[in-house]
Design brief:
Layout: H1 7-12, H2 21-38, E1 52-53, H3 58-62, H4 70-89, E2 96-97, E3 103-106, E4 112-120, E5 126-134, E6 143-149, E7 162-163, E8 171-177, E9 184-191, E10 197-208, E11 211-214, E12 219-221, E13 224-226, E14 229-234, E15 241-244, E16 256-264, E17 276-287, E18 295-298
């Protein structure tokens, strides 16, 4: 690592005060390179935090695979409590050591961490639980919010901003920073929906004065500004939703959130999302070109980079163990 340009002078100046300016510079270069060669030079670095190991929660989470009725909510609440206790004791800067038994994502600055899980209901919908851990600034105390959604049956509104108590559940597999607001991120998630359809969502999450808020006017789409983006499609098909970092060069592109364009299998089925699936084209949201502008929809986007599989999860339903594919 290249050391700060002022560090050698600040460190060695007291020992060289009697020397001339030219001899100072010459001596500094000699000492600097000697220390580099023998491995003694250490520039200021950020201490690496230990990973946040969630494996101790797996046994508790496993109860969601076979539970029924109110017992499932009790297990989920216990899981939330155990997770929050773990987070309180852990280093706030710890990196998540992602488990397969629940979805876990965090922001690049590690101020925001979101953990989510689901369990099956007898009517082929899912219920969701989760925990959000956040800091308002780097040195601020850790705040924790429990999440719960009773049913995935109804599609979330694309226009509503809601508090954590009205959260529409999903399993989040990625988190994308907003280009304008440092306290806003885009969560990319999977929603079980019901026996006929599945959903993928772009869910803005914000840190605000009263805590966490879901939904924000950050996505400028075909019908104007949306507070979240919902892809609803036939349960049997697979749909991509993926973040791609900026790529420079001849075939480059800005950073973007890329997803399959959905269409009905037949024209007369327009509007019936149980018959929707990918039409082999892609759309994307890209940062607006003007300052402080929201994400802009870019139709017919060429997926220059291959879309890898979305973060996998273990489906708790024994009768339908689907993997969350691209």
């Amino acid at each position: 690592m290249k050391p700060p340009s002022t560090a050698p002078t600040a460190f060695y100046a007291p020992a060289l005060q009697a020397a001339s300016r030219s001899r100072n510079m010459h001596a500094l270069r000699i000492v600097h390179w000697a220390m580099v060669l023998i491995g003694l030079w250490t520039a200021p670095t950020v201490a690496k935090s230990q990973a946040l190991d969630l494996s101790s929660l797996e046994v508790l989470h496993s109860g969601l695979r076979s539970c029924e009725g109110a017992t499932c909510k009790t297990i989920s609440d216990s899981l939330s409590s155990a997770l929050m206790e773990l987070l309180v004791e852990a280093d706030p800067n710890a990196e998540i050591e992602g488990p397969r038994f629940m979805a876990a994502v965090q922001s690049g600055d590690r101020r925001l961490k979101v953990f989510t899980w689901n369990w099956a209901q007898s009517n082929r919908t899912s219920s969701y639980g989760g925990v959000v851990a956040f800091q308002r600034s780097e040195d601020a105390p850790l705040e924790l919010t429990q999440l719960y959604d009773d049913s995935s049956a109804d599609a979330p509104s694309t226009q509503a901003a809601v508090s954590s108590s009205d959260w529409h559940g999903a399993l989040y597999f990625d988190m994308v920073p907003d280009p304008v607001d440092k306290d806003t991120w885009m969560l990319l998630g999977w929603d079980d929906a019901d026996a006929m359809v599945t959903r993928k969502v772009i869910e803005p999450i914000q840190i605000r004065g009263r805590g966490i808020r879901f939904g924000a006017p950050t996505l400028n789409g075909t019908m104007g500004m949306a507070r979240r983006w919902v892809l609803e499609f036939a349960d049997a098909v697979q749909v991509s939703l993926r973040y791609q970092p900026e790529k420079k060069g001849k075939d480059g592109h800005p950073r973007r959130i890329v997803f399959d364009h959905l269409a009905p299998s037949e024209p007369h089925l327009t509007g019936i999302t149980a018959y929707y699936g990918p039409d082999m084209t892609f759309d994307a949201f890209v940062p607006g070109k003007k300052a402080n502008s929201p994400w802009q929809l870019a139709p017919n986007t060429a997926p220059i980079q291959a879309l890898p599989s979305d973060r996998p999860f273990v489906d708790p339903r024994p009768r339908n163990r689907r993997e969350n594919q691209p």
